[in-house]
Design goal:
Length: 328
């Protein structure tokens, strides 16, 4: 875990605006924030440097680059992915030559300005948007191959959207939905376990889904996704419509799942504070291409060379980077 003293000098040296770090610290729970050391508040950022993918090259500038000539130890590998818009003549790519790796058991933040291609990339990972063959791999298996039917892929790779869409009925009915489609029965004890993992009290099992608040509904949607026992969760701005308290509960539930269950998460977020709080590494998209990728902890490095190498990531965190509104 990387901890940086929350002092005027460390904020100045990090290259990130002081109010941003103050908000990130204020919105982080004491358990995640690192508490205090010698009276100083510390901000802890998930440090992925210990678990960097051995098949990726980590250069002195901190950039993470997949090596296409080596077998990957990543959960997801994306190699030279180009996706074109189905509208018009298709000449304008939504994603252009995207290559990246998602380490197992960690939270990878997918960030960038509006229209940079984040949602399109996320959707390709479970074939809601169809990628070209030999461009997206799950555990080294091409997700478009006959070895991995789309139904199997989506059981292994769950997705949580910006707005939760629950079915009519009880919370328990919603959680049982996916397993029931496969002929699996989930006992009440399992329902309670999934609710606990998602940060919801067991008593909610028999609540009408229509009576839930936005934050409660999103956590029930998380429990429903977990009922399929996924290896990966794709999160498309799942907290953007939630208040700060509900946002923190969702963040804590996902972080606990990574720590306790080894869940791999790809999290699309527009919140710089959230990225600092929850992610181990980040990938910055700009105009449909990867502009930067690095361990999140490097964003707080005082090293001028690292700050210069990752200036686009710092600009994004400062809200300075603009993109095209045409991409999703």
């Amino acid at each position: 875990m990387f901890s940086a003293p929350h002092s005027a000098s460390s904020v100045e040296n990090s290259g990130i605006e002081e109010p941003l770090l103050q908000r990130a610290v204020a919105a982080t729970s004491p358990a995640d924030a690192g508490g205090s050391v010698n009276g100083e508040v510390t901000l802890s950022v998930n440090d992925s440097s210990a678990g960097l993918n051995p098949s990726s090259s980590s250069f002195s500038d901190g950039h993470l680059r997949p090596d296409p000539d080596q077998p990957s130890h990543a959960k997801f590998s994306v190699r030279h992915l180009t996706v074109r818009s189905p509208k018009g003549d298709g000449s304008r790519p939504l994603l252009s030559d995207v290559s990246l790796e998602v380490p197992p058991g960690e939270i990878t933040a997918l960030v960038g300005p509006s229209g940079s291609g984040k949602t399109t990339l996320l959707r390709t990972l479970n074939r809601l948007t169809e990628p070209p063959s030999n461009s997206v791999f799950l555990d080294n298996t091409d997700i478009t191959s006959s070895k991995l039917p789309v139904t199997s892929l989506r059981r292994r790779v769950g997705m949580l959207f910006q707005t939760p869409s629950l079915f009519d009925g009880t919370v328990a009915d919603n959680i049982r939905f996916g397993p029931n489609l496969e002929g699996r029965q989930i006992p009440d004890e399992k329902i309670h376990e999934l609710l606990n993992l998602s940060g919801i009290e067991q008593s909610f099992a028999e609540r009408d889904s229509r009576s839930l608040s936005g934050g409660q509904a999103q956590r029930v949607a998380l429990a429903r996704a977990l009922a399929n026992e996924p290896e990966v969760l794709l999160l498309d701005e799942p907290t953007s419509a939630l208040d700060p308290a509900a946002t923190l509960k969702v963040e804590q539930a996902v972080q606990a799942l990574c720590r306790g269950q080894g869940l791999t998460v790809v999290w699309v977020s527009h919140s710089a504070e959230q990225v600092l709080r929850v992610s181990h590494s980040l990938v910055l998209l700009h105009n449909g291409a990867v502009a930067d990728s690095l361990p999140t902890s490097l964003l707080l490095s005082p090293d001028p060379a690292l700050r210069a190498a990752h200036h686009l990531a710092h600009e994004f965190l400062g809200g300075l980077l603009e993109g095209s509104a045409d991409r999703e």
